Each structure stands twice: as C-alpha cells, then as structure tokens.
Amino acid sequence: MLKDIESKIRSWRYGSSTFLIFIFLYIIVAFIDFYPSLKEYLFELVKINFPFLYSFFNQFTLEKILIYIVAIYGLFKLYKNTNKKEGLRYKTFKELKEKYKGEKEKFLTLSFKNKKIINCSSINYLNEIKDLDINDNLKLKNIKFIKLDKEYKVPELIQLKMEEILIDRFNIRSKEDYNGLTLSLKKVSYQKDSKTLLFYFYKSSYYKYLVTNTIPNYEILPGVTIEDYLEASGNNKLNLLEDSLVENHLGISCLINLVDEFSNEYLVIPKRGNNTTVFKGELSPSVSGALNIHSSLNELNDITIEQFFLSEFKEEVECLFLANKINEVKNIFINKLKLIGFSRELKRLGKPELFFKVNIPMCYFKDINKRIISLKNTAENIIDNRENEKVFIIKTSDIKNFINSTNDDEAFLEIDNFNRYKISESLLVNLAYYFR
Fold it and tell me: What is the pairing mode between strands 251-259 and 351-361?
C-alpha cells in the first residue's frame, strides 16, 4: 500500500513534502494500531467531543482516513502551485518593505498636495545610472538599444527544474503556449556629452522570464524559493542590474495626455482584459509592453525604441484616433515622448521598467466627447484586441480625487459610476513619475 500511494503522489506531482507528511502520519497510525487500548481511548474521545466526526469516520479504517487526508492535502498543494492568480505569486508590500529595507530611500510613492500617499512596490533606479539627469529632457532619439552577441542563461538549479516548473506552475504543454524572443537587460550607461542613454541586452526568451521573474515564492527546494536562490543579498538590497541572476526583460510604458483647445488635460487609461499574462482586468498606462525582438526590429534589422512604440501604438491605441490624421499623430507621438522614469519592480525581483509621457492635441482624438470607449468590437482596427477591453478618458486634475487605496497592496480608481478599478503596478509607477 505504501508504494502504491507513493507512486500516485509522485505521478500527481504532489511533491516530496506531501510524501514526508504521509510517512509521518503513517507512522502515527501504525503506532496507534500497535496499542489497541490507545486506539479505543482516542475513538471514545472523538465520540464524546465530536459525535458528527465519529459517526462519519467510524465507517472507515484508519488507513483509509489517512489516504483521504493526504489526498486532500495533495490536491490543495497542487492547486496552490498551479494557481495562476498574480496575487498569490508575490510578497505583500509589507513583506517587500522588510526584505528590501536597505532600499528604503528609493521606494516610489504617488503623493498629492492633499497628503494622500499611495505606495508602489518599485524602487527608483534613475540615480543608479552614473551622470544621468532626468532634467536633460531625453526623447526617444536619445535612447539606443544594443543587442550583445550573448544569450541569457537560466541559473543551473532552475534550469534543471525548468520543465517541471513550466508544466506545474504555468500549465505549458504544447506549442500553442507562445514562447517569444525577448531581450534581457544587463547594463545601462549614459553619455553625458551626447545625451545618449545606452541599454545593453542579451538574447533571451519568454519562458526564461516566467521561471525567474514571475514566481519568486515558488519552492525549488524544500524551504528554498526562487527569490531566496536569485536574490540572496545579505544587505537587504536588490542586486544591481549588472549583477542580477534574473532574466529581467525591459518593460516600457507611457501616459498619453490629451490637451484640448482650452488647455484642459485628459489621461488615456485603458482597462486590460482578463486574457492577459499580467495585470489581468486592471488599469494600465496608455501604451505599455515588454520589449522583445519581434516588436522592436525596424526595416534595417536594428532594435530600436522608436519601432517598439510604433508597434505598441498600432496594437493598443491607434484605433482611438482619426484615421485620416494617424500619420500626424504618430509623428507627434514618436517625436514628443519624454523619458520621466526608470524603476525596478520588487515583486518581480527587480524587473526593469522605463516610463514616458507625451501630450497629443485632443483634436486628433476620434471621440472627443466620450469618456468611456469600449474596444470589444474593434477587432478590425486593433491587432491584439484582447489586450484592452475599454479605455477611460480622465481629466488629469481629477486623478487625485478618484484614486485611493484599501491597503498597501491595492490602489484603485473610482470611476464609471463609482465602480472601483484596480491600478496595475506599471500605471501606479507611471503616475508617480508623472506627478513628481
């Protein structure tokens, strides 16, 4: 019987800890069976204090009860390990604040004159780039991407378990589960004289990002999580970008600010759909995405940030603007985007994120008088219509009135007849930089 249960447990991927619990319980059962008087005493105790449980379990032997306990525990553990809900993957803000207390001065907050403060789970990384001054007014033309002839390698212990993690944690089982070519950020430098911000990348892939950045709480050894393995800094600080063992492909976001003829400003804030990989159903920056080779490769086969933004603009917001003016809008968008921030997200083990803002005249907007725009029926105008399901146009000065938080881990906007919409970490950080 012992061997049968062991093989079932292992084939169901319940894990070694489940098997150890089974062994422990089995020893207890064997001990009780060895002393009939003890067994009778325990059953009598249950009968007196828990008659319902006694009448139920009296139908079964101790061995069967043991099997049920282990099976229920195993199923619970399997659910916990394969549950894709983002909230279960990461530490809370309180836990992050304690773990990375050496970064205390770098934690980003969204604050307003009315003293309202919303915490971000990200740290400001601008000051870590030597000679960089955000007041240098950097545009896209000042940013250069350099792809090195190297490939990011997953640390050995995770590499050995990579197949198991992808199946157990992400249910990846076929070629339908897309594995894109990404770029792992290894170094950033700034040339003050030419005002050029240089980003150096290794070639990488999406699966490598999944098994390093996105599941910090996953146990790869009993009691040892991926975060313990990759971020083993003893000084309560995040490893420097160039020292990081994590995949770290670059996220890029921007806020579009529509400006009308009276100089009123309105932010374009999409609500993501529920089929996205991250920030499901949450509010996000106007344009956002992860830098990858496919979306950033231009006609000259160069990786550029201009091409990245052109691709993302077409996918996410092009359908919001007048079709006969789209080339003018693109020119404004690409030439006026301004760098406002560079952060590293602690929940995802220091994943780097770039943030921008841009002003676009309201006259180019297709639905000037609409404040909520549904994207559910725009498949012919938008490449990835699953990315966003609707867009809110919110007066910039009203954001401070609509934003709030229930606790340190969740910020939201109360809009659309006082409905609450959770704010994604990327939008929260983009707003923090925007209102600085």
Answer: parallel
Domain boundary among 82, 98, 117: 82
Quick check: 353 and 373 in contact, CB under 8 A?
A: no
User: Please, how many CA atoms are within 13 Å of residue 182, restricted to the half-sphere of its CB?
Assistant: 23
pLDDT tens-place string over residues 382-423: 445 557 788 999 999 888 888 887 766 688 888 877 688 899
Average pLDDT over residues 366-393: 67
Q: Are residues 46 and 120 in the same domain?
A: no
C-alpha to C-alpha distance for 126 and 134, rounded to whole angstroms:
8
Q: 10 Å Cβ neighbour count for 143?
A: 20
- Both 45 and 186 in one domain: the answer is no
Determine the average pLDDT of the residues in 367-385: 60
Look up residue 122 and give its two tokens: 């990200």
CATH number of the domain that residue 114 is part of: 3.90.79.10
Q: Which of 194, 203, 207 is nearest to 159 (CA)?
A: 207
Pairing of strands 196-205, 143-151: parallel
Which whole-number Å values give the CA distances from 225 to 43, 90, 94, 208, 417, in the listed order?
40, 11, 18, 16, 42
List all residues 6 or more positions away from 372 whose beta carbon is below 8 Å from its beta carbon: 390, 391, 392, 393, 416
Judged against a pLDDT cut of 80, whether residue 186 lies above it is answered with yes
Helix, strand, coil % over all residues of the chain, rounded to 5: 40, 30, 30
pLDDT surpasses 60 at 164 = yes
pLDDT digits over 284-302, tens only? 999 999 999 988 999 999 9
* N-term to C-term CA, the chain: 65
Residue 267: beta bridge partners?
257, 394
**pTM of this prediction?**
0.79
Q: What is the pLDDT of residue 26?
A: 61
How is 323-334 classified by DSSP, letter by letter? GGGHHHHHHHHH
Position 244 pLDDT exceeds 70: yes
Range(s) of the domain holding residue 37 = 2-82
Domain identity same for 93 and 222: yes
Give the C-alpha separation, 98 to 96, whole Å.
Answer: 5
Cα separation, 119 vs 425, in Å, equals 10
> What b/e sequence results for 337-365 when a residue is b if at least 16 CB atoms lie within 10 Å of its CB, and e otherwise?
bbbbbbbbbbbbbbbbbbbbbbebebebb
Please tell me whether residues 75 and 110 are part of one structural domain: no
Are 259 and 347 found together in one domain?
Answer: yes
Residue 34 has pLDDT above 90, yes or no: no
Q: Residues 342, 354: contact at Cβ < 8 Å?
A: yes
Nearest to 271 by CA among 376, 361, 162: 376
